[in-house]
Structure formats: C-alpha cells, structure tokens
C-alpha cells in the first residue's frame, strides 16, 4: 500500500493530492508527472530515478511543513531517460496534462497516458532494428499449456498449445527468444523448466497471471479480437492458448490505454520446428558470435535490406524447420532467385527503398506515429508495387509461392491511396510545423490514417512560413504565461 508522507491527505496541496491519486493506481511504476516543460518525479520514485539517471535530487513542499524528494527531466528529451529506466528493469507510467491550462477550472487535469514496460516497447529509440522485442505468456489449464509470444514492435502474437508433458519445449521456445517480460500462471512459476528464464530478467519484469474469463467469453473475445472463427484462427478447443492471448491483449490495453488493438495472430506449432534453447544458440553461435569480433551463422548470410528481413532471418535460424514440405518450399524460393538474377536484382533494389513497414503500421494503429513516418510508409508502398512486378515474373516458375505475394502487393488498401494523394512529399515529424498534407479538402472526417492524429493541426498545415513563425512566437509567449499561471495554481 502506498504511504503518503503526511497523516492528513487534505493538508496536501492540490497538486500533490492529484499526484498521489495517480500514484496509488501505479504503485509499481516510476510515475513521470508532467509539470509544464518537465516530467517530475517525487518521493521514492525521485530517489530511484536520481540514482539510475544520475540527475540532481531536490525537494518540493507537500504543504507548509513537509517536503518530499523531487527530480525532473525535460519533456523534449524524456525518451532517452525512459530508455535508461527501462534498461534498469523499471516500469514507467507517464502522466500528461489532459487540458489547456488556460481553460482549466482549478488544477489542470492529468492522467496516465502510457505505461512503458520492457516487453511492450514500440519506439525505435528503445529497439534493435534486427531483433524482436518479446513479451511471453504461459498458462496451465488441467493437462494443457497455452502460450502466447508478443513481438511488441510489430504487433504480432505467436500462440499455441501443448500437452503438459511438453513443458520443457515451451520453456525452450521462450528462452530462444530472450523475452524482456514474462507472465506465467502461478503453478508454472514454480516449475524448474522456467527457473533459468525467470532468473535472466529483472524481478519486476516477471509476474504471475490469472483471473481469466469463462470459456464462452474467451471464445467470443478471440473471434472479436482477430475477426475470424476459432477454426480459422487455429484456436478451436484451445482454451489455455486463448487465456495466454487474453493476457497479452489485457497488458497492451492497460499499457497503451486503448481498447481497439490491431494484432496479427500466427498459430505456432512447436512440433514443426526444432527447439533450440538459449544455451544451444549461444554455443553454436547461431545469432551472436562468442566475441564481439567473431562472426555468427547469421553474419555469414547475405545482409537483408530491411529490418523486417533481418528479424525474419533471425527467426528462421533460431528455430529450423523439421517438416520436408516447409523446407522444400524454402529451397524452391531460393532456387527461383538463383535462376532469375535479373528479378533478384530488381527486388533487392525495391527493398532498399522500403522502410520498416511492420513497425510503422503497428505504431500507427496505436496512435503513436508521426507525419514523417507516414510519408516513409507511403514511399514504401510505392516501392513495393515495383517489387510486385518482379514477383509476378517469378510466379510463372513457382506459381503457388510467388503469385500470392504479387497479388497481395498489387491489392493496396484504400488507406494506401489516401496517403499517396494527401500526404505532402516531405511531411515533418511534428504536425504543428505544417505542410503535412497537399490538400486538406481531400481529408475526410473520420479517416483513420490522416484525420485523427492531425485534426488539430489542419489549419496550420496550409500556412505560409511567415504565418507559422508568427504563431510560434505568439505561442511561446502564451505558453510562458500559462506555465507561470499553472505553477501558481498548483501551489495554491
């Protein structure tokens, strides 16, 4: 239970009453509390953050007689500080101002807009381009083990179910992915198979899970979340797997404060792949060399042109296929490229112009992207259309394999066309900088890709440079006055 450092909470300033109300909801996290141009931390959070980040610890008055430790970081550079807190194994809750201070009646409303944990990272600043970032969940139900592995940067969930006697296989699959966050049902926490995995991650990143809906409710949840019948999803009768998936979705909803999640479900049959645990992968130098200068098996292969390709190559090497059909399909694909060097060169050229679509789309679905990333996505879609032509020429030789790829690339969603027609050639990172769109009359109300994130900045987007400079100058003076007013109000 959170201890408020005064006996009577009514004697706290309005600011600290608001702070402690939020802190009670997020006791296990370091709470970054937005105050003007800074995110402030108080009490034990400030002491921990000061030690981890190496920043100065000061104090602030709770009331007329009591002070509390305090430290802060500038809002414009908060990402690098959050990264260091996450690397130290801490969870971070970000509380933002939810209204304009000039329009607030009383203290400015604040609320937590994001909980950041190691297994649910999506920002490039936190991630390695060639590696996945994983949250792993396992649930035991009678004699079955359900599991779900979220690759958070791309929004993909690999899930399946195994007999309880295959517990070691599930644990080995988890180990091979080196998850940064782990959730297990209570009985699995005591299993020796998971002991090495639990010991490998910070204590705060391993937790028990439970309290699941009924079987009918889980079935309804799975069909609604992924928009398909259970049979098509590969989940018929797999209640333990649905429990694990439910925990992944529950965690993401809590962390990102959203209800509508766009996730890709990939059924995972562990019997179709070799289970190489972390110890085996290290000894065989599959993904990493024994020393920094030593080459791994992954390094021997030709370098993929995209981060998506690097992650796929890592997955393929980490879990080799067992079944002849899948192995033969890969051999056919490689042979088709060897026989058609011209198509291979064209595809390589197209891929060199493709950004990390998987990660950009995932961030966009969570409302965490920016205009420049959408511009990169637009340019990537155009590049993929030329790639589709090359795939079509290959499909004449290996029709089943490449015709599906070509068909998918040549059938763009309506949002693709909107991005191509509406987005400016070189959109900025910050919407308020303007020149986001070519013509705002093409942006229709309710369009998910463009209208929602940038609605408040539509007028600015068409202003001249001089007009924008005037607005920025006026805005900076207004913000200074608002920050002074906010500081006085919060301390009344």
Q: In a nutshell, what does this entry contain?
A:
This protein has 21 helices and 12 strands.
Fold and architecture overview:
By secondary structure, the protein is α/β, with parallel strands linked by helices. It has 4 domains: 9-116, MutS, DNA mismatch repair protein, domain I; 129-278, Nucleotidyltransferase, domain 5, CATH 3.30.420; 282-318, no CATH class; 333-459, MutS, DNA mismatch repair protein, Chain A, domain 3. Helix content is 46%, strand content 14%. The chain contains 21 helices and 12 strands. The chain has helices at 14-25, 43-53, 78-87, 167-177, 186-189, 195-200, 215-226, 230-233, 239-256, 278-283, 297-300, 307-318, 324-339, 341-351, 357-365, 371-395, 399-409, 414-422, 451-454, 458-461, 465-491; strands at 30-35, 38-42, 58-61, 67-74, 92-97, 110-116, 134-141, 144-151, 156-163, 181-184, 206-208, 264-267. The strands form 2 sheets. The protein has a 6-stranded mixed beta sheet with strand order 3-4-2-1-5-6, sandwiched between helices. A hairpin with a 5-residue loop joins strand 3 (58-61) and strand 4 (67-74). Helix 14 (341-351) runs antiparallel to helix 16 (371-395). Mean pLDDT is 83; it is low at 446-487.
